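quick one before i forget lol
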Amino acid sequence: MKDPSCLFCSEAESIQHLFFECVVAKQVWFFMSEVLDRRVGMDFISLGTMWLSNRRFLVANIFCAAALWGLWKLRNNLCFQGLLWKDGRVLLLKVAAMLENWSVLCPKEFVPDFLRRLDKLKDLATRPHRMPGLTK
C-alpha cells in the first residue's frame, strides 16, 4: 500500500493539500502573490476564476500554471526519482526557469510585464534569507 503522506510535510496528501494547503504550497503562493501584486493560490476555484477572465489575467495565469506544474514536478521527483527535498528557493528558481522557457507563449503586448515579474521572482528566489517552512 502506498504511503498517503505528503512528501513535503508528512500530512495526509490530497490534491487540495499538495497544491494549496501544504506548507510548501503556501510559501510558493505567498511569493507568487508578491510577484503578481495580487493574492493567488487559495484554491482551484480562485485560479479558475482568473482563467475565465481571458486576457485580463494572462500573465498571472501563466505564472500560476508554472507554480502548479513546479509543485507537481517536484512532488513527483521526490516520489519517483528519489530526489531529496532541500530548499524552497530551488523550487522558485525552477519555476522561474520554466517561465523563461514559457515566455515565448506570452503575447508581445504582455512581454514587458511578464519579464518584470519574472525578474521579481528571480530576485525573491535568490535573496539570502531563509524561507520559513521550506527546508527539510
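fyi The chain is about 60% helix and 0% strand.
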